[in-house]
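re the bet — no i am not wrong, look at it urself. input seq straight from the record:
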Amino acid sequence: MPNPTLQQAIKEAYAAAPTDVVVLETLELRHPSFSVPVRLVRDTQDWSLTLEPDAPADPGEAVMFVGYPFAIEVPPVEDGAQPQAVVTIDNVSAEIVLEIEAAVTTAEPIALTYRPYLSTDTTGPQMDPPLHLMITQINANVMQITARATYGDYTNRKFPSREYTLTEFPGLVAAT
């Protein structure tokens, strides 16, 4: 099934596979305990890439993504598919492992954002909106991090999610 969030330019790059255009897949990990977001690009070099205007951290700014070997299996865009991504980051630095270890001791989940860019257009991601997930399971050692991420815990979300209070809706007061 086609992915409607992808921009036309990246669809053409996937279809034509031109030799002068590289798809730059990026990961951003965020957590309140992190000193800064962890930003990785699947390449052998670092890239300065511009985030989308409504990014959770540093919106609209050009930020540095560090070249790192990783693999990601994004959730499929089809009916009945399990909405889960699997991320594997190889040759993990001690700094990243320390950030992950500090984050898993808290109740707050680690947020993960996946953004593809084109090497010929670093002014914004080629997916609108980018894929925002929450890490539900993570295993880290000195060589590799493996994580599973989903869209969120929708089964335990209260319904209706909006509370109707007298402050917001004064008409709820019954006439006497």
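see?? The beta strands are 23-30, 38-41, 47-50, 62-67, 70-73, 84-90, 111-118, 131-140, 144-150. told u. also The two ends are 57 Å apart (CA to CA). so pay up
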